[in-house]
Amino acid sequence: MGSTNSTLSKIPNVEELVQETGFTPAHIVRLYDRFEALDKEKTGHLRPQDFGAINRLAINPIGDRIIGAFFSPGQETVDFHSFVRILAHFRPADKKRPKDPSMPEPVNSRTSKLKFAFQLYDQDKDGKISRAELLQVLRSMLEMQVTEEQLESIADRTIQEADLDTDDAISFEEFRKSLEKVNIDHKMSIRFLR
Amino acid sequence: GKLDCVLSYSDDFKHRSIVYSFPDAENSNLPVFTMNYARIQVPFEVTLWVLLASFAKIGFHVYHKITFWVPESCLLISIGLMVGAIMHSVHEEPPAVLSYNVFFLFMLPPIVLESGYFIPTRPFFENVGTVLWFAVVGTLWNSIGIGMSLYAVCQIEAFEVQDINLQENMLFAAIISAVDPVAVLSVFEDVSVNEQLYIVVFGECLFNDAVTVVLYNMFNFVAEMPEVEPVDVFLGVARFFVVGLGGMGFGVIFGFVASFTTRFTSNVREIEPLFIFMYSYLAYLVAELFSISSIMAIVTCALTMKYYVEENVSQRSCTTIRHVVKMLGTISETLIFFFLGVVTITTEHEWNWGYIMFTLLLALVWRGLGVLVLTQIINPFRTIPFNFKDQFILGYGGLRGAISFALVFTLPDSIGRKKLFVTTTICMIMFTVFIQGISIRPLIEFINVRRTNRNLETINVEIHSRLIEHTIAGVEDLCGQWSHYYWKDKFLKFNNRILRKILIRDNRAESSIVALYKKLELQNAMEILDTVSGDINAGSSIVSLQYVYPLSHSSACFLSLSLSLSRSLSLACSLSLACSLSLSFSLSLLLAFSLSLSLSLSLSLSVSFCGLVTLSVSLSLCPPGCLSYTSFHIVHPSSLTHYPFNLNRSDGYLRNPEGFGLGSIYQG
């Protein structure tokens, strides 16, 4: 426990992090160790290249999008706080949390998780998944399995299914509606982050 | 009189002749009508019994309300009871359907094959830990608990059962503690609880067979031995691993062999389904040969086989397999419950209030306790923990059924109180099937267990789910941890690189998105074909590429959006709105080439009114398997080309037409 405490003291604003993300101090320490392991040059910030060093992430079809999600627009580095904040999306939801409308939506609620997934598609941040963006994601996920024509058919069908206001793009509300029967909390949670 | 048929030899043995002779040749003529019942007796009676049970099933569904509230198993047992009463009163013996050999070799495999074939694989593998935990540890807990407490109950003098020793009690407990797949599935089928709960109950009842087999054999062996040595306990544990892993191993081996075989069956499509059934039955029998868990063997065989086989066989074979598997399973289940009712009346019973009541009570108590304790231990390892409502249903859904009955029937007669055991087992089964089976549906509604909506298959859900899976895998790598996604990913890569190449004929690594897309397109096509009377129709959107050769070469250009309003075989009325610039009467022979599989010929008569609207009636003959899709095009009569604007293109997926079948839809 001694090492935990000493690590804790190295991290600035730990209480704020705990409050905001809901992680326990033990988790934050674990994440800090991981952060430091990735931050090879000990700058206190991570750059995209540091993420690229993770082998399995590099071969993930949407690896670059995941990495991109950590960097706010315009920023080139990620500090520890942002790192933890993004990872907090993947905490399993707290069942006992009272629904307090005055408080901001917690980071790991269903809506926040859905927003995270939505932003993986919506790279230009216009609030809609256009056909081109959908095609890009499909292309990277399906790689060499299908021809371009088939990809377009799949994309067409997808938009046709979800697009309720017929603007040939999927807005966040349509996205949410298409996934209404799916247990997002189950799918988008990482157990050890509880 | 009977006709005697004699083979007689001539005196020098050179000539043979068949002589028809009558026993009394005095005044008998050629009989016009004879009867020989003995010859056909066995198959005839089997058929009649099957028909009787099936008529009962038809009868239930006449009044829909009954089957909603009372599970079919109860109704069948009731009918069986009535028939049994009739048979008993005329002193007839019912056929020995629930005897050991007939039951375990013929009645049980189809049901277990059906369950194994239709297990939802993804949830199963996500919950495999929990399933095995409940199946193995849960059954052990139940057996030992019930056995010990029954032994304690036996010591009470008032019940007059002191002669049942510990081994016999444990043996009996092993028999009745196993949750029965037949009973459970027939009840849970219609009740839609949430997926996690369903898969755990489902999996548990299939996989506890390993434990039951081991315990049964062990205690059977031990009940006849005077003493138990500690070494036997270790041997028991070792035997459990042999039984369990051996069962799974055989299943997987046969599954792979079956998949491999179907790779080469492209020229013998008619017997493709046969391989599935033969290999799974073989897996079952080989496991029985070695006294290892045959249920696990056949379930794992079906699980392994399904994925690869469905890609290799033709669409027709696939449908046939699914349909026959379901049919055989339903027949078996019907017969089993039916005969459970019949045999209840006709066996000899020995009633003992104390023993029976305590057995029922203890079974419930131990199951409840077991579920509570086990869930507490395993919940921290689950992503979705079970809440108390789930646990209640998990415990309450532990129905016993025909397997226990067959096992108790085959207890060696050296066990003194065998009749008591038989009676108790029957009471247990009746209680669980009737009381628990009937009440579980209202209870589920009452306590409001999380339900599931099973229709989740949209392409959106699939794509987004895959994206999320990739995301989770990526984030897990980021955090330096892995969980079951890691194994799943690893398996998928292994599958794509090695297994698929060996086992599938036309291999191309396929994402689940593409597979689902093809499946959905296929479903749309099948819906078009699948009318009530089985008619072929042109569906709701009629044929596509139309080469129009109008007789008049006026500059009429018409936009035809055709919708078919009738669903009959030959007449497809298509209403097409056409803007034509002149009054043209064009009789066009449309060579409709539907971009799927077959040619359809249609004759279309179009009359245009006032140059504005053209009504065209087209007669189209579409052979079965005709797919169509909506298209509208602007046609210039003077030109033979056309400009199709297609809304739903399904070309590119549907190559390799195979005559009138839908062909190997998964290829290409």
From TrEMBL, chain A:
**Gene Ontology CC annotation, any one:** cytoplasm
UniProt KW Calcium keyword:
yes
Q: Which residues cross the membrane?
A: none
Gene3D superfamilies from the entry?
EF-hand
Q: Which PROSITE patterns match?
A: EF_HAND_1, EF_HAND_2
Q: Which residues form the EF-hand domain?
A: 109-144, 150-185
Tell me which UniProt keywords the record has, alphabetically. Calcium, Cell membrane, Cytoplasm, Lipoprotein, Membrane, Metal-binding, Myristate, Nucleus, Phosphoprotein, Protein transport, Repeat, Transport
Which SUPFAM superfamilies does this entry report, sorted A to Z?
A: EF-hand
* Subcellular location as annotated: Cell membrane; Cytoplasm; Nucleus
Among the record's GO biological process terms, what is one?
protein transport
Give the family from UniProt.
Belongs to the calcineurin regulatory subunit family. CHP subfamily.
> What is this protein identified as?
Calcineurin-like EF-hand protein 2
This chain's source organism reads: Hucho hucho (huchen)
Q: What is the lineage of its organism?
A: Eukaryota, Metazoa, Chordata, Craniata, Vertebrata
From TrEMBL, chain B:
An example GO biological process term is:
regulation of intracellular pH
| Subcellular location as annotated | Membrane
Q: What is any Pfam family matched here?
A: Na_H_Exchanger
- Enumerate the UniProt keywords alphabetically: Antiport, Ion transport, Membrane, Sodium, Sodium transport, Transmembrane, Transmembrane helix, Transport
Task: List the InterPro entries hit by this protein, alphabetically.
Answer: Cation/H_exchanger_CPA1, Cation/H_exchanger_TM, NaH_exchanger
Q: Does the keyword Membrane apply?
A: yes
GO cellular component, alphabetical, reads: plasma membrane
Q: Which residues cross the membrane?
A: 42-60, 66-86, 98-119, 131-154, 166-185, 197-219, 240-261, 281-303, 324-347, 353-379, 391-409, 421-444
What's the superkingdom here?
Answer: Eukaryota
Primary subcellular site in the record, as a coarse category: membrane
Q: Which GO terms describe its molecular function?
A: potassium:proton antiporter activity; sodium:proton antiporter activity
Identify the Gene3D superfamilies for this entry: 6.10.140.1330
Membrane topology category: Multi-pass membrane protein
What range(s) does the Cation/H+ exchanger transmembrane domain occupy?
A: 51-444
Record's PANTHER family?
SODIUM/HYDROGEN EXCHANGER, SODIUM_HYDROGEN EXCHANGER
| Protein family (similarity comment) | Belongs to the monovalent cation:proton antiporter 1 (CPA1) transporter (TC 2.A.36) family.
Would you tell me the protein name for this molecule? Answer: Sodium/hydrogen exchanger
Originating species: Hucho hucho
